[in-house]
Amino acid sequence: MSKTFAYVRCSHRLQNEQRQIDALKGIEVDEIVIEKASGKNFVGREKYQQMKSLLRKGDLVICHSIDRFGRNYSEICKEWESIINMGVDIQILDMPILNTKNNSNGLTGQLITDIVLKLLGYVAQKERESIKIRQAEGIASAHKRNVKFGRPKSEIPKDFIRCYELYKQGLIKVKDVMNMCNIKRSTFFKYAQ
Description:
The protein has helices spanning 18-22, 46-54, 66-69, 73-85, 106-144, 160-168, 174-181, 185-191; strands at residues 4-10, 31-36, 60-63, 89-92. By secondary structure, it is of the alpha/beta class. α6 runs antiparallel to α7 (174-181).
């Protein structure tokens, strides 16, 4: 008996997959596979690979859009071909022309699907490249304005220098400095010279 899988992917753990899940309403799905991973390739996507290992001839894979499937032109085309060769159909919700299930136009329909897939795969990869370029430009611009990234540097704890001098003279121990300055051992060694 054939199964229907829905593949839902977000690039980042903070992104929300709910709009992709909402798009499945009214569609009978046996299993929804949700993954938070980059679309640059299919290798590092564990849940996708697990889903693919479960696919059998006659199954259906549903994805909201081609860029949720992937964002690398050659990888999308290769993976698409691999799934189709398994006898599994693919349905892209926002681009019905890509749906391989019930493709009644035979060779012409397959040609149109291939052309559209390659075009949309190209667009998805170009968007990924544009995102990376815009991100790099934003970071470079921020650096020019002296914007600091990451955690702010912590200040030397109050009384640390005085306590550290006592420690260096052998009058107190590391534990005493930690207690007097209310710091952890790692902080002590961070500021110890």
